[in-house]
Amino acid sequence: MFKVFSKCTLATIVVTSFFAGADQPRELDSSTWQLQWNDEFNYANAELDKNWVSQNGPTENPWVLSSRWRDNAQVKDGILHLLAKKEPRGGQDWTTGNIWSKRSFHYGYFEARFKYAGAYGTNNSFWFWPKQGVKDGLKACEIDINEGHFPNIINTNVHNWTDTYTLPNGRVTHRDNQLHHTLIGKPDHTVEFNKPVKTKKYD
């Protein structure tokens, strides 16, 4: 389940891993927000391509051991399943599923409900990325809402992909602000993020 609310709603939503949609209580007072877009995945698998696009190729990041394909993103019974398979394709030993929203968004409240894959080594992620690029003079930033790892790890991060610098060993890197959280494993456990991400609005 994905919902986008705005009081103004440019990033593209990126989703990887296994997603499920069970109803949970919400704390958002929706009377003060306007629903701009949502997807409950309550349609045939072929219709996924109306709102989402898959990578369909190898992954250049050396930390990612899988290529990503639309074949590994399957909608069934109102649930989007993103499958990881041990199979060589695209020059990598594993294949996985991922999707990017075709629509881009500005500012607002974003809500997603998903379930981690029950296996070590998976990256269950929900993040924002300017897939269509940015205008000259603006910064290309990635906001990782959750890069989750089985059984109980949450990483959040803000990457600034524009302002790079070179380390003494010659490696080119970029600025980020990674926060690491370990859940205590109880169903009612929550993590509160008290440090808001500050952004600038450009018209």
Keywords:
mainly beta; globular
Poorly predicted runs of 5 or more residues: 7-11, 17-25
Sheet with the most strands? 8 strands, antiparallel
User: Care to count the β-strands?
Assistant: 16
Distance separating the two termini = 29 Å
Into which percent range does the helicity of residues fall? under 10%
Q: What's the overall average pLDDT, rounded?
A: 79
Order of helices and strands: EEEEEEEEEEEEEEEE
How large is the share of residues in beta strands?
35-45%
What's the helix count? 0
Question: Mind telling me the C-alpha Rg?
Answer: 17 Å
How would you describe the shape?
globular
Class by helix and strand content?
mainly beta
Describe what this molecule looks like in 3D.
The chain is mainly beta and 203 residues long. Helix content is 0%, strand content 44%. It is built from no helices and 16 strands. The chain has strands at residues 2-6, 11-16, 34-39, 52-53, 66-68, 73-76, 79-82, 85-89, 92-96, 98-105, 109-112, 124-129, 141-149, 153-166, 172-176, 179-182. Strands 2, 4, 10, 12, 13, 14, 15 and 16 form an eight-stranded antiparallel sheet that branches. β13 and β14 form a beta hairpin. The radius of gyration is 17 Å and the shape is globular. It starts with a strand and ends in a 21-residue tail after the last strand. The model is unreliable at 7-11 and 17-25 (pLDDT under 50).
